[in-house]
Structures are given as C-alpha cells and as structure tokens.
Amino acid sequence: MKKNFLVKAILWVVQGFIVGLGAILPGVSGGTLCYAFGIYDQIIEVLSNPFKGVKKHWKMLIFIGIGGVLGFVGFAGITEQLLKWNEAVVLCVFVGLIAGTVPELWREAGKEKRGKLSIVALVVSFIAISVVFYLFKSVLQLTLAPNLVGWLVCGLLWGLSFIIPGFSSSTLLLFFGIYEQMSHGISHLDFGVLIPLGIAMLATLLLFSKVMKLLFDKYHSIASHAVMGFVLATTLMILPPFNTGVWDIAVYVICIVCGAVASFGFNALCNKIKSSADED
C-alpha cells in the first residue's frame, strides 16, 4: 500500500510540474495537459464544489500543487531566456509537445461517442479560435501594458487556460506583448505581479469551473472534440514561418518530432503507471 501511494505521489508531482511548466510555456495549455494526464475531471470537481472536492482529492491536490508551483515559478525565468536565445527552435519543441498529446486527446474524446456533431464541433472550434488568434495578432494588434490591469488580464487568461483544455494563455500573452515582463516578475517573485495575477486566476477558476463541468458531464463528446479544435488551432498558430534555409527547416522538424516523441512517451508512461497503481 505504501509503495502504491509513493508511486502515485511521485506521478502527481511530475504531472503537476509539467502542468505548471505548460502553463508558463507559450502554446501549451495547462488544461490540455491536465486533460491528457487524466486529472482534469478531478480538478474541475474540486473547483466546482470545493468542500466536497478537496475532501475527496486532497492528497492528489497537495502533490500536484507542489509540482505545479515548482514548474510554474521555477521555469518562468528559464523560458524567458530560452525564447531570447532562439524563439523559433523553442516554439517548435512546444509544438511537438502539444502534438504528442493529440492521440490521447482523440482517444479520450471518442470513448463515449463520436457522432457528426462531434466532428462539427471540432471543425467549428478550430476555425473560430484560428480567426480569433489571427485578429488578435494581425488585425487588432492588441497589446497590454505591464500594470495592474495587465496583470489582472494575465490572471484571467491563465484561469481560462486551466479550465478550457487547449486554450493557451501564454500564446495570447505573447501576442499582447506582455509575456516577458510577466515571466520576469514571476521568476523574481514580484508580488506586484503575483498578487493581482493570482487573484484574477482564482476568481476565474471558481466562476467558470462549474460551467465547464456541466458541459463535459452532459456533452462530453462534443465538448471534447471542441477541445481538440482548440488544441490544433493553438498549435498551428505558434509555428514559426518555414521560409528560411533548408538547414533551419530541418532543425525545426527535428525539434517538433523530438518534442512529440517525448510527450507521447511520457503520456504512455503515465497511463501505464496509473493502470499498474490502480490494479495494486
């Protein structure tokens, strides 16, 4: 029993670490990772009914929380430096990490039913989010100032990224031109950044989690396929332009493949460990 719990605890910390890391990485959705790792429903249950949810899942929350804080705060400064080093290469790795979760998302989305409405939801969500991102980036050219309002918007977007799998807050923050300032504030524990960001994120989670739980409980297939549309659109939006030299393109492809293999392999390992732990 102790060995079984130790395995689960380690798995939860690792999953929390990657979810926290995913929240800070552009193009990666913390909600998508929770969904792919099989902990999304538990998180939504806690947020939609805190007293009952915490009582039921408190052990998981502790270890996922530890991992999440380590990934979120610990890597904020690192991602800032990586993007400055070679943004295109780093984004290609991120694209691969997301792509590696797609097979699991497809399997999860179709576990109950995959009807015509589900496919329509996938296509519509893909087109909708692609158009929205394009408007943000190319037409409206929206920017956010690094002030109180900016940090509150950051928290709002981050909260949405945890309860809407596939929604990447960091990608939008890159578009808004506030990502590097925010990462700097987080990595240096600037409470002028952390407090408004945390308040807005917590408020968003508590306000919208019940809506997401209702959607997934009643319309699981449609909602899950809509999630896939979000994921695919988000992934394509952060791809760097492949209009450089042959060598650069080859490096981009290698980074995407390596990221996808690593993500797929880790997800398979998580499923294997969870299955083994459940059987014990």
SSE order and pairing:
Blueprint: H1 2-24, H2 30-36, H3 40-48, H4 50-74, H5 76-99, H6 102-109, H7 116-139, H8 148-163, H9 169-176, H10 179-187, H11 191-218, H12 220-237, H13 246-279
Helix pairs in contact: 1-2, 1-4, 1-13, 2-8, 3-4, 3-11, 5-10, 5-12, 5-13, 6-12, 7-12, 8-9, 8-11, 11-12
Q: Please, could you describe this protein's structure?
A:
By secondary structure, the chain is mainly α. The chain has one domain. It is built from 13 helices and no strands. Helix 1 crosses helix 4 and helix 8 runs parallel beside helix 11. 44% of the residues are buried. The mean pLDDT is 79.
Largest sheet: none
Termini Cα gap: 8 Å
Runs with pLDDT <50, length 5+? Answer: none
Number of helices: 13
Oligomer: single chain
Which percent bin holds the helix content? over 70%
What is Rg?
A: 18 Å
Order of helices and strands: HHHHHHHHHHHHH
Output mean pLDDT.
Answer: 79
Please give the domain count.
1
The tally of beta strands, per DSSP, is 0
Instruction: Give the class from helix and strand content and strand pairing.
Output: mainly alpha
Give the overall form.
globular
Per DSSP, what share of the residues sits in E-state strands of 2 or more residues?
A: under 5%
Which key features would you list for this structure?
single chain, 280 residues
Short description:
The chain is mainly α and 280 residues long.
